[in-house]
Amino acid sequence: QVQLAESGGGLVQAGGSLRLSCAASGRTFSVYVMGWFRQAPGKEREFVARINWSYGSTYYADSVKGRFTIARDNAKNTAYLQMNSLKPEDTAVYYCAAKRTPDSPYDNWGQGTQVTVSS
User: Fold this and answer.
1) DSSP per residue, the chain
2) How far is residue 51's CA from residue 80's CA, in Å, rounded to a whole number?
3) Exposure of 117 in the CB half-sphere (CA atoms within 13 A)
4) 10 Å Cβ neighbour count for 11?
5) Within a 13 Å sphere around the CA of 79, how many CA atoms are in the beta-carbon half?
6) Structure-derived torsion over alpha carbons of residues 38, 5, 104, 71, reported in degrees to the nearest 10
7) Separation of alpha carbons 12 and 116, rounded Å
8) Which residues have CB under 8 Å from 10's CB, separation 6+?
9) Going residue by residue through the chain (119 aa), what tens digit of pLDDT does each one get?
């Protein structure tokens, strides 16, 4: 099992920036990909970005491409989501999640951190 803990959420004005962190503990050697997801009130959870834990390759949802950057620090077992040019529609609870193989589901999730962007 991998335990994940997000931090860094908060209230920010439109156009501002936030950096989320996701600290991993436990069987971190088993992590293949770390992803960020978000869920806004009344909406389904959606994919935001992911990073290959070993190689650092990244992939983004179209809605955040060019504004958000995912990164990781293997020595600290921590993933980051740098969010710039934030919009009110980015308001959501943000979750990090981990998967162990390319074909496995995301089966380890953090508790989430609230991001609120005011207009």
Assistant:
1) -EEEEEE--EEEETT--EEEEEEEEESGGG--EEEEEEE-TTS--EEEEEEETTT--EEE-TTTTTTEEEEEEGGGTEEEEEE-S--GGG-EEEEEEEESSTTS---EE---EEEEEE-
2) 10
3) 18
4) 12
5) 34
6) 70
7) 6
8) 18, 114, 115, 116
9) 899 999 999 999 999 999 999 999 998 888 899 999 999 999 999 999 999 999 999 999 999 999 999 999 999 999 999 999 999 999 999 999 999 998 899 999 999 999 999 99
Tokens 């949802």 locate to 61
Copy the structure tokens of residue 119: 């207009």
Which one-letter amino acid corresponds to residue 62?
D
